[in-house]
Design brief:
The chain is mainly beta. It has five domains: about 60 residues, OB fold (Dihydrolipoamide Acetyltransferase, E2P), CATH 2.40.50; about 70 residues, Copper binding periplasmic protein CusF (OB fold (Dihydrolipoamide Acetyltransferase, E2P)); about 70 residues, OB fold (Dihydrolipoamide Acetyltransferase, E2P); about 70 residues, Nucleic acid-binding proteins (OB fold (Dihydrolipoamide Acetyltransferase, E2P), Beta Barrel), CATH 2.40.50; about 70 residues, Copper binding periplasmic protein CusF (OB fold (Dihydrolipoamide Acetyltransferase, E2P)). It is about 5% helix and about 45% strand. It has three helices and 31 strands. The strands form four sheets. Strands 2, 3, 4, 5, 6, 7, 8, 20, 21, 22, 23 and 24 form a twelve-stranded mixed beta sheet that branches. Strands 25, 26, 27, 28, 29, 30 and 31 form a seven-stranded mixed beta sheet that branches. A five-stranded mixed β-barrel has the order 9-10-11-14-13. The longest helix has 10 residues. The chain is globular, with a radius of gyration of 21 Å.
């Protein structure tokens, strides 16, 4: 089945972090692997994140808290977190990788092409320029009653900014999922109040859940993920499992880190903030440049740095990315036959227009699997996608899809 890509603000801007060509600065330097990574899977084989292929053979894969996952569970567009080892040759291998869905549930408010938004289980979801939408042609295919799994992160207004949306009909074996904080726990009645990150609340009834499906350490203020088989009855959810939401991957002291995400808990002086649970700090010129670029809560950023003994990533580079409105004027959609490919320069052409592939380009489709995704592209291949025009007139590719 052919799948296409919807429309996001924040993710398109990531091309600017990974590819200097978009800014008119020439061909970007090769991406280098990091020891601690948080970002979006841009291609498979094993997984490509931030322009680097990380091998997953023999790796531990955790999906929504379950350690029984495999490489097949990791898909393009998912936001993942992992530790990796890098050998003398530069080959990077994942030790442990974790994926946590933002929400799984039935759509309550259908997708709107103008806003790019839909609502599921009370959570507003925002799609954008490089959101991978699987199972629908675009966000209008996200219709009421469809089952969706969303990967992404909340912004400053508690909207879930999606990097991937999988759409399908709800069937047996599918589970809905929410995550939040426990309060008003009643261990006799086996109920509690779940407060979501967007402040919406549900009453959770876990009285019919199997004993081994409810964490024995459940307590007030616990961060939990709740799974259930049917839509809420009003504000009440009958849970099939309740598990503590722990940090599945912890940054290793002394490792190089590369993260992307949305800023929260921002403090200007001395500069510190959090990226999806990971604390970040910066001083000197790094902090000054980030502040001058408008760093604030809700901003999408890319960060490189070193992990300290306290688990804080000390930033050596912070890139504050452009908003959707700033990007759309430079957006170009393309569809045609490839007329030239240069793997050394990471470029391909369609007629007289040259396109740069960057470390943030989303390679949609399984056809891209391999040592170098661009090596799978040949003259005559029919492709489509979206790109941003730089000041030098060149185009940096946001998403690339090859026709089957």
């Amino acid at each position: 089945m052919k799948t296409t890509l919807g429309f996001v603000a924040a993710m398109a801007a990531l091309v600017l972090l990974g590819g200097c060509a978009a800014m008119g600065l020439g061909t970007p330097a090769p991406a280098t692997p990091a020891g601690y990574v948080k970002g979006v899977i841009t291609a498979k084989g094993s997984i490509w994140v931030n322009g680097v292929e990380y091998q997953t053979t023999g790796s531990s894969v955790t999906v929504d808290g379950s350690s029984t996952g495999t490489d097949a569970d990791l898909k393009v567009g998912m936001t993942v977190e992992f530790n990796a080892s890098v050998d003398a040759s530069g080959k990077a291998t994942v030790k442990t990788v974790a994926y946590e869905s933002g929400v799984k549930g039935l759509v309550e408010v259908a997708g709107d092409l103008t806003t790019g938004q839909f609502t599921v289980l009370g959570q507003v979801v925002q799609t954008g320029l490089s959101t991978v939408i699987e199972g629908a042609a675009d966000v209008t295919g996200v219709t009421v009653g469809k089952f969706v799994e969303v990967s992404g992160q909340l912004d400053a207004t508690n909207v879930l900014v999606a990097t991937r949306v999988e759409v399908k009909s709800f069937g047996s074996g599918d589970e809905l999922k929410l995550k939040g904080e426990v309060s008003a726990l009643d261990t006799v009645a086996k109920t509690f109040v779940l407060t979501l990150e967007n402040a919406k609340t549900y009453t959770i009834d876990y009285s019919t859940a199997a004993a081994d499906k409810v964490d024995s350490a459940l307590a007030n203020k616990s961060k939990v993920r709740v799974k259930f088989a049917t839509s809420p009855a009003g504000s009440t959810i009958t849970a099939t499992s309740v598990t503590l939401k722990k940090q599945d991957v912890k940054p290793e002291s002394g490792s190089k880190g590369e993260l992307e995400g949305i800023v929260s808990s921002y403090v200007a002086d001395p500069l510190s903030f959090t990226l999806d649970g990971t604390p970040v700090s910066a001083t000197g010129d790094v902090a000054s440049k980030a502040l001058a670029a408008g760093l604030a809560d809700g901003k999408k950023v890319g960060v490189k740095g070193d992990v300290g003994a306290d688990g804080v990533l000390v930033a050596t580079k912070i890139e504050v990315q452009k908003s959707d409105k700033e990007l759309k004027g430079d957006l170009k959609e393309f569809d045609g036959a490839v007329t030239a490919v240069d793997i050394t320069l990471d470029t391909f052409a369609i007629d007289s227009t040259t396109y740069y592939v960057t470390s943030k380009t989303i390679f949609h489709d399984k056809d891209w699997t391999g040592t170098d995704p661009l090596a799978k592209l040949g003259v005559g291949d029919q492709v489509e996608g979206k790109a941003l025009k730089g000041t030098d007139g060149m185009y940096s590719v946001i998403v690339l899809e090859k026709h089957n």
